[in-house]
Specification:
By secondary structure, this protein is an alpha/beta fold. It has two domains: 1-46; 51-184 and 255-315 and 330-353, 2-enoyl-CoA Hydratase, Chain A, domain 1, CATH 3.90.226. The protein is built from nine helices and 15 strands. The protein has helices at residues 2-45, 95-105, 125-142, 157-160, 231-256, 260-267, 274-279, 289-299, 316-323, and strands at 52-57, 64-75, 92-94, 111-124, 146-155, 167-170, 175-177, 192-195, 203-205, 271-272, 285-286, 306-310, 332-334, 341-343, 351-353. The chain starts with a helix and ends with a strand.
Length: 355
C-alpha cells in the first residue's frame, strides 16, 4: 500500500518537474526567437532594397508613386523605442528610417514621386528634421516631386517634417501649425507630505516629507520637482529653446517663402484649420488622399500609375503573437525623451500606460 502511494507520488513529482522544465525551455526558446527575429528585422531594414505592396492604382503600371506614412509621435531611431519589434512600435515614426527609405527609393527608377502621408503631433527635433532632410535629399538626387498629404494633423514636428516637400495638401477638417518648441514641464512641489507618483495619483504638500538629490556639477539635478528652478537655469534653458525655435522658423521661412517676422509675430505657435493655413501659406490647398496622388501624377505627366508602400516586415513569432490577440496595449511604455521637443499636445501622454 505504502509502496503504491510512493510510486504515485514519485510519478507526480516527476510530472511536475518535467512540466516546469518544459515551461522554462519554452520561455528560453521564445526569448531566443525574439532575439533572432529582431536581428533579422534590423538586417532587412539595412539592405539596399525594400519589399513593397500595392495599395491602389493600376497594378500593371510601370510608374510607381511611393507612399510613406508618418504617423504618431516622431522619434529619431529605434534606439528610443521600448521595443525593436515592428508590431510593438505602431503609432510611432522613426525619422531616420523614413530618411533611409527615401534614400533607397532614390535608387529605384520606377518610382516617379513620393507622397508622405502625415498625421502627427510631432516629437523630437532630430527625428522630425531627419524626415525633412530626407525629402530634400531625395528631390536633389532624382528630380522627382515629393508631396505631403496631411490626414488630420501636422503640428509642430509633424509640420517641420513636411516643409521641404514641393506641395503640402491637407484633407478636409485637418489641423496645421504649432511652429514652436517646448522643454519640460519642470515641476516644483513645495514641501511634499504625500504623493501617488508624478504621473498618477495626487501630490499633497504642507511642511512634510523632505526629498534629497545627491548630485555633482552645478545644476546637475535640474528637473528635480522638489526644488524651484533657478533664474540662471531658466535663462539657460530658454536660450537653448530659442536657438531651436530660430532654426525652426528659418526652415519654414525658406521652404514656404514666408517672412520670418510673419511666422514669429502673426502665425506664432497656434494651430489652424485648412482655410486659414492656406491663407498663411502653410499649405497649398485642401485635397483628399486620392486627389493628392492624381495631382502628382498629372504634374509628372503619368498616364497611369500604381501607389506602393513598404510592406510590413513581421516575422513568424510576431504574427503568432498578433494572431493570439497580443498587442502593444498590454505594455507599459515611456517614450518621452529628456530633450527639447517639437510637439503639440499634452506631454504626459508620451509617458503613460498603453491600455
Amino acid at each position: 500500500m505504502k509502496s503504491s502511494f510512493f510510486r504515485m507520488l514519485f510519478k507526480r513529482v516527476i510530472t511536475i518537474v518535467v512540466s516546469v522544465h518544459a515551461i522554462i525551455l519554452s520561455i528560453f526558446s521564445a526569448v531566443l526567437l525574439i532575439g533572432i527575429l529582431s536581428a533579422v528585422t534590423l538586417r532587412a531594414d539595412s539592405s539596399d532594397t525594400l519589399d513593397y505592396r500595392i495599395v491602389e492604382g493600376n497594378k500593371g503600371s510601370a510608374n510607381k508613386i511611393l507612399s510613406i506614412p508618418v504617423t504618431g509621435v516622431i522619434l529619431g531611431d529605434v534606439s528610443e523605442s521600448p521595443s525593436s519589434l515592428p508590431f510593438l512600435t505602431e503609432g510611432v515614426t522613426f525619422g531616420y528610417r523614413v530618411k533611409d527609405e527615401l534614400l533607397k527609393a532614390s535608387k529605384d527608377s520606377d518610382i516617379k514621386g513620393v507622397v508622405l502621408e502625415v498625421n502627427s503631433p510631432g516629437g523630437t527635433i532630430y527625428g522630425s528634421r531627419a524626415i525633412a532632410d530626407g525629402i530634400a535629399d531625395y528631390k536633389k538626387a532624382t528630380g522627382n516631386p515629393v508631396y505631403v498629404y496631411i490626414g488630420g494633423l501636422a503640428a509642430s514636428g509633424g509640420y517641420m517634417a513636411s516643409v521641404t516637400a514641393d506641395q503640402i495638401f491637407a484633407d478636409y477638417g485637418s489641423t496645421i501649425g504649432s511652429i514652436g518648441v517646448i522643454y519640460g514641464p519642470i515641476k516644483f512641489y513645495d514641501t511634499v507630505i504625500s504623493e501617488g507618483g508624478l504621473l498618477e495619483g495626487e501630490v499633497l504638500t504642507q511642511n512634510g516629507i523632505e526629498s534629497t538629490y545627491i548630485s555633482a556639477g552645478k545644476s546637475k539635478d535640474l528637473g528635480n520637482p522638489y526644488r524651484q528652478i533657478t533664474a540662471e537655469e531658466k535663462a539657460s534653458l530658454q536660450k537653448m529653446v530659442d536657438t531651436e525655435y530660430t532654426s525652426f522658423v528659418n526652415l519654414v521661412s525658406i521652404q514656404r517663402k514666408i517672412p520670418q517676422d510673419q511666422i514669429r509675430n502673426t502665425i506664432g505657435a497656434l494651430i489652424y484649420a485648412n482655410d486659414i493655413a492656406k491663407e498663411l501659406h502653410l499649405i497649398d490647398g485642401t485635397h483628399n488622399k486620392q486627389d493628392t496622388y492624381t495631382i502628382l501624377a498629372k504634374n509628372k505627366r503619368l498616364s497611369d500609375y500604381q501607389v506602393i508602400q513598404k510592406a510590413p516586415s513581421y516575422g513568424f513569432f510576431e504574427n503568432l503573437l498578433l494572431s493570439t490577440g497580443f498587442t502593444k496595449k498590454s505594455l507599459s511604455t515611456c517614450i518621452i525623451p529628456e530633450t527639447i521637443l517639437v510637439y503639440h499636445g499634452d506631454l504626459s501622454v508620451l509617458c503613460s500606460r498603453n491600455n
